[in-house]
Please model this.
Amino acid sequence: MPPPDWPNAIAHVDADCFYASCELLRRPDLKNIPVCVMSSQDACIVAKTYDAREAGITTGMTVWDARKLMPGATFLPADFRYYGQISDKLFSVLRRFSPAVEEYSIDEGFMDMNGLRALHRKPYRQIADNIREAVHQQVGVTVSVGVSATRTLAKMASEYNKPNGTTIVAGRRILEFLQRVSVRDIPGIGANREALLDKFGIRSGADFAAAGEHLIGRLLGRAGTDLWHELNGTPVYRVEPEAGLPKSVARTASMGQVTGDKATIHAHLIHHAMRLSGALMEKRITAKHLTVFLALKSFAKQAITSELPYPTADYFLLAKQAGKALDDMFDPGQRYRACGLIATGIAIRQAGNFDLFQQAEQRQEEKHLKLLETLHNVNQKFGSNTMTVCASLKLAGKGNHARFNYPMLECV
Amino acid sequence: MFIEKIEKEVLLKPLQTVIGIVERKQPLPILSNVLIEKTGHLLHFVATDLEIQIATQINDTNQAEPTDESLTVAAKKLHEILRVLPEGSKVALEIQENRLHVKAGKSKFNLQTLPARDFPKILEHFEQSEKIQLKQAQLKKLIGLVQYAMAQQDIRYYLNGVLLVVEGANLKLVATDGHRLAFTSAKLDKEYPKTEVILPRKTIVELVKLLEENDEEISVEFAENRVRINFSGITITSKVIDGKFPDYDRVIPSYTNHLALDRLVILQALQRAAILSNEKFRGVRLILTEKNLRVSSSNSEQEEAQEDIETDYHGVALDIGFNVNYLLDGLNNTAADTVVFSFGDPNSSILITVPGNDEFKYVVMPMRI
Model:
């Protein structure tokens, strides 16, 4: 029996090279010239137009390398506040089509499309085309739209026909669609998982969907079986219109120098731990996992992700974990230029919901949080770094203060 | 003829017994099927989800010339067909060219089958296993006292089930989700070697459904990573959760402050307060003073509920908050007339017991409201 066409309908709307498009909006003079947007420190590329991509410029590439590849391109510093304003406009247009819009990131969103055919008196393809036209006319950037039965399929569909395209994958077309994409096109399947799946003969999206759930579960765990159901047209992930929790909160920065001094790196990490703890506390959320990363002089990255003993925002735990990861990763023969912390497994802080098996730890955490709150209040009143932990004092030297307080936008 | 003539009710009963674990969405098509094996006059029914297997059998004495045959067929479909046939219908089953023909009166059904040899039976071979025996009603009661406290899809996977401990002549059952813990114990007929297993949530749920309130014997056998439970002609073979259950003794407190309450009085007061508690956090406040217990709640719309219960309490005052569902669960699942709340400070857990019975303990962590 073929699957029903629309047991569920979700649209994924993805802006085409968003930052670069935003820049073109206010710099019409740059039209038809390749544009690359650099990270605020002007170190690497965070977005580029399609012509720049064709020249081989990739996200994350250093500006130096990109300039060599494409000397004629225009390189612009990033302006995330401006991009945020354009993003708000984009989502307000989407909300006119369906009230159930989830802002997945600054430049992409999911929409619950169920029942919208009756409202707009149009099939999904026309609604999707209307969305694209409306965004183009009223915001000025182009988006690609994918509509299918699950989030994952919708996301893959929007990616399929970029830029400024509509891809509709109805239930009975899922298999046909999956035959045309590789497992690497499935969100959540990276190089490592791709290599693993390859060993079991799973190469196309269709192979993945046709493999037994059991096999996928064995290879990729729960995340894999969730994807498997999604690819087979059974929704696992819903559209969550309420401002969802962030997927990660990061505090990272260049150290402003290239150093082989472990104490300096440690001081930077401590400083990040303090800021990260503050950010988590302010949002009343906790993290379950902490990734500590170091960037070498060569820009190569090293990272260790470990599980925190319990979901927490406690600076003392974050700092301890960061220190341990540094001990494990630090190589005295190397020189480092950047470091940072990324908290994931974000959940709402269950205020005072005590756990039977972690009573002592939770009590200690409460004490710590009280102390940290006081510290943050002092800093808010008298200026940041009025009061901080001694371990980060090594940074206090001239020109060594951390300059970049924006959350990292892309954690590759 | 696979089955010549059988009353639909007779055939329905074993199907109902095994069908609980057949899930709608199955990775392997054959897992949606029930295995029916006929040996002589005996009909065996087996279903599995690879974690648990349930088997039962009936006698089919109508068979003139019994043969040995077996097949697997979609469990839900066969069950549904039998269920909607008129009461007292006589049913005949016949296998023809890998299809199962079901006939009842003027109705005919033709179902596809899969070969019985492909059916993944869990190894039923139990070598040198330990085996305990008790009464069915007894195990049903014990499971009922703790099962509501099991975790559900917790990442601490070892909490998604019930810990079963055999120690000397004692059987202990423990379940916890990290916020509350239910403990119960019972005496066994004799001493057994020490055994500890965690039974998965699904197995517990099936047991609750299938166990009956009678004095029939039930046996529980333990092997390396499986258990086998035998009762009323039913055999449940289940994998156990491979993990370390937390040290439950450590979190069962002993306090000196006690408050005795009529179970129904406190239960109903909490049920009333629950209506106006925050839908998400479900907090209620218990304020204990000399001779009075005040139960109160409020929600985000500033609506409030409050109720006073007279007590004979003399001791330190206490102001403590709880997730009302946790308290209701414990109170709903004991049958005692009186319960005792024992407590320390507002940040410590509370212990609920039944006077004169140290076989039941329920520990709940407070929440700050």
Summary: Chain A is about 40% helix and 20% strand. The longest helix of chain A spans residues 359-382.
